[in-house]
Amino acid sequence: MKVLVLGAGQLARMMSLAGTPLNLKVSAYDVNSDTIVDPVTQQQLGTGLAQAIANADVITSEFEHIPYPVQELCQHSGKFLPNSTAIKAGGDRRQEKQLLDKAGVANAAYKIVVTEQDFYQAIEQLGLPLVLKSALAGYDGKGQWRLKTQADAPAVWADIQQFMAGADHTLPQAIVAEQFVRFDREVSLVGARNQAGDMVVYPLTENHHVSGVLAVSLALPGQQQLQQQAKQMFEAVASALDYVGVLALEFFQVGDKLLVNEIAPRVHNSGHWTQQGADTCQFENHLRAVCGLPLGSTALVRPTLMVNILGEDHVSPAVLSLPSCHLHWYGKGKRPGRKMGHINLSASSTSELAQRFDQLRQHLPEQEFPELDVVAARLKQLQ
Ligand code: ATP
Ligand code: MG
What we know:
Layout: E1 2-6, H1 10-19, E2 25-30, E3 35-37, H2 49-55, E4 58-61, H3 68-77, H4 84-91, H5 93-102, E5 110-113, H6 116-126, E6 130-134, E7 144-147, H7 153-165, E8 175-179, E9 185-193, E10 199-201, E11 205-210, E12 213-219, H8 224-240, E13 245-254, E14 257-264, H9 274-277, H10 282-290, E15 304-310, E16 325-329, E17 339-346, H11 350-361, H12 372-382
Parallel strand pairs: 1-2, 1-4
Antiparallel strand pairs: 2-3, 5-8, 6-7, 6-8, 9-10, 9-11, 9-13, 11-12, 12-15, 13-14, 15-17, 16-17
């Protein structure tokens, strides 16, 4: 089967690598250059978007900020999975919040802000601190503001206005003002739903961020009560969207309760550990779902963690001498903070993983990997 992916980054690349043994041929639409490329080699394939849509058996997406006209074309072809309603809900925080409310899934209290009056009403109704997020085009913590005190309000509003003035005006922009959640930790659930409505979910993953960007994900056994709660929320959201493919839910954990932070209608960075830690990786399961193949087992085969390589195109090759340590590069040009690759580390138990992680840390400079001390301490706590 031929699969066209909208977006030609690392997620399309890893889908292509996972699809090859199944004889699935993946090509990708690079939104920036408006060309069709091989997502592994980045070689241009010489067809235009319309031709690629006609050639494909299935069209899917690796990110949610796809221009609406492109989404319409794909939706029109009848081959687009997940559907464009799901992609739009992931790319517009207003639609996302409405979806979560409709599905009856707990999320942070919020108010949509367009005018200055809305902004001050949000402060009054939701209280401080507030997290303000642009409705469109937000990712990796970009397009976000924190408002801690009333005295800072005029400056934050001025900043927001400046951001809105510079935004793409083809779609109405707005801000979602959210109550600040004092969470104990952040976790996420990645799962898949097929066309018949069958659903499978991976074990919950604990996520550690640096400056709003994912740094490390831990997939560990246990946590039955939370897993059940997350699974129910996943099923509610995926069913409400008539979703087909892999979907990720990011949560705040407060005590023993989960609140959905956001959804990602695609394979997700917090699911990269599945390449070494799960029976079937998220990339293969996404392709299986959209191609109408049976879903694969999502069972955790061994405790696994993932470390993102941000802004660096080199790590010591010695990391490959560690047992069950795997390096995945994305073949991208170096830029500060850019997701360049990741490391997956596995072990037969959490205590062995903690030991191996200590060995791995010796090869990763603290300046480039600032979160690793926190994760090491966390792993020792979890043993
Ligand atoms: P990404 O693309 O990396 O998922 P994003 O730009 O889509 O990021 P969010 O996930 O909404 O943005 O927010 C980034 C981080 O900011 C969250 O992981 C969390 O640490 C923090 N954050 C977001 N919303 C809140 C909130 N309401 N209360 C407390 N912290 C928050
Ligand atoms: Mg997020």
